[in-house]
Amino acid sequence: MSERRRAAGRPESGGNATRTAVAAAVLTGLSAVIVSLITGLGASVQGFVTDSLFGEKEPAAASAPPRPGSSARVKVVVMPAGEGGFMVSEKRATSAKDKAVLAGEAPPEAWNPLLRKLGVVSLTANTYKVAVTNASSSPVTVVDIVPVVTRRTKAIDATLITPLGGAEEETVLAELDLDQRYPQLTRNGKPYFSWASQVLRPGKGFVMVVQSRLLGREYVEYHLRVDYLDERGDKHSLQVEDPDPARKVFRLSGRVGDKEYTDYWDTNADGTGHRLYSREERK
Length: 283
Hints:
It contains four helices and 17 strands. It is mainly beta. The strands form three sheets. Strands 1, 6, 11, 13, 14 and 15 form a six-stranded antiparallel β-sheet that branches. It has a six-stranded mixed β-sheet with strand order 2-5-12-8-9-10, with no helix packed on it.
């Protein structure tokens, strides 16, 4: 491989550790501190939220058990915060038309429809924002945001697509390590909501920027659950899904060795598109 291609994110040792180097570049030196911005988000914060109640057995900040409500007192919206990294797919680009898009031989507007068609998943790390707002007329206390893993299988190994120009780094304010069997949002390596709860006045909210990561050889699907207490101390929960209605669940894949992918689309010599590399070329 050329020096240009290695600089875009591929380590030279091991042949099968490409993604580890990319993840290290993204994660090194980044703060693991959640910054809660108290803003007047109000009615502008709407989202892809399912209002549901979970009878959790774990103790809440108050002794009262979760209590059903007729409508959500808390509204949540999830917003993507960064694109442009390595992507994988369980599907393959097999038609001449799709291969032309990957090769940079089609109009730029054909790129995103192809990614949706392939159902691409971010590789090893992705970033998104979670905005929480009190939509009721009384104060509420957000006591936890829980990642709920609904699927964990082997890492995706059908198709890998590298980014044009290399992976971009993102500022990370909260970390979610999906390699853990029971992942949590963390601050300085400790569960954030063990440090503090968020008390929200009516119409007020906070925003978290979260980076999830998955460095092992697994694929994970999950949703978020926001636990909060109303003014009476009764516990409620909201299930928060991915904002893409075609997916609904958050998804992330770990890595496998470069030679294990069925199709490996890396950048071409002039960096204007991709070409399909054989296993022998993947060094």
